[in-house]
Design goal:
263 residues; alpha/beta; Rossmann fold; 8-stranded mixed beta sheet; 12 helices; 43% helix; DNA_Partitioning_ATPase; P-loop_NTPase; AAA_dom; ParA family protein
Length: 263
Amino acid sequence: MTLGLVIASQKGGVGKSTVALNLALTLAEIGYDTVLVDTDPQSAVNLNLGKGESQFQGLAQVIMGQVTVEETLLPTNHPRLRLLPKGRLAIHAVPAFELRLYHDRIPEKIIETPCLKDSIVIFDTPAGMGMITRAALRAGTHVLTPFRPDHLNLRSMNQLMETLAYIQAEENPNLQFLGFILNMFDKKRNAHQRVVTKLWCDIPLVLDTVLPHSELFEVAQDKKLPVVLMGPSPEARRFRQLAEEILERVGGREVSHEIRQLV
């Protein structure tokens, strides 16, 4: 069975693309055939890798019927990881891109692509619960939400959970919420400590893994490399821990189908 993992968040700036990219590579290193799909019109994955926005055909060309999903899959330096880039997309064409991706159910067609059978397909989505993210959630099997520990993100949780509950009830009953992954956590900041304490006390759906605030992420971005390719580091080990925790929740530990309303 193909696993469709959607990285989604109501708020921007929480590190979705960084999590998606490093998690995809880590899952490939563990031994899973993995595909990273860049659905964001701003193409954060391409920018993180130092690739030009118009360098490759991709999702935009699939939507227009110019190429197939198979023809747009790009190999990477890891034999088990492939990339489906956003493709060539002019800024004025973004609204049409969003409409077609949603109404033509493109994420579902990606997951159903025969050559991706039994793969892990990771969808990196734009911020918010717009049509692109909704389309990915309608197709996905699981959702993971990066959470940056500040009060604005804490207040946005209900909006996210309300959207997930609606999609699960009306469009995709098989959708499972894996939980929130704490990202950019700085243990030296009292404000972060307070938010995280409230999160752990009040919310049951928080993963054990914590991704720290670290200058290594900025260095990796400057070098156009994923953190996990920067050599052995505590940050790389955290992504290994995250990947193993996700695999345990998906395959070994029962994951609740209930999308909970947060108070």
